Amino acid sequence: MDGLPISSLTYEKLEEICEVAEEAARRYIFSKVKREYVSDLYISIDLESLDVLNVSIEVEINLSPLCKNVDVQEIANGSIKAAFEAIEKYLSKIRSEKTSEN
Q: In angstroms, what CA-CA distances link 40 with 24, 27, 56?
């Protein structure tokens, strides 16, 4: 994900991007699997930049042995997609706010 200069984002905005992405990933996961069946959940959002913002998201899910016939990788991939979509929506909101300020 790129296109928005990192210099235009404050530390608080970068934190918000991470929070938005994590919340979207969690919301997606728990829409597919009940919380009590998730035994371990790891979500990592890394922001890197030189001139543009690059976002990397990693999701690992371990389910209870009671959950059979559940494609964990499919849920993890879906949650990553949901996180990127949430980031795009958030960045669009920031862009439109900056445009309306000018």
A: 17, 15, 20
**Is the sign of the CA dihedral 12, 18, 21, 23 positive or negative?**
negative
Q: Are 55 and 85 in contact (CB under 8 A)?
A: no
Strand pairing partners for 61? 41
Q: Is 37:91 a contact under the CB 8 Å cutoff?
A: no
**What average pLDDT does the structure give for the chain?**
88
Tell if the pTM clears 0.70, that is, is over it: yes
Three-state DSSP class for residue 16? helix
- The type of residue at 41 is L
Show the domains of the chain with their CATH numbers.
Answer: 6-101 (3.30.300.100)
pLDDT of 31-42, one tens digit each?
Answer: 999 999 999 999
Residue 43 has pLDDT above 80, yes or no: yes
Cα 30 from Cα 24, distance rounded (Å): 10
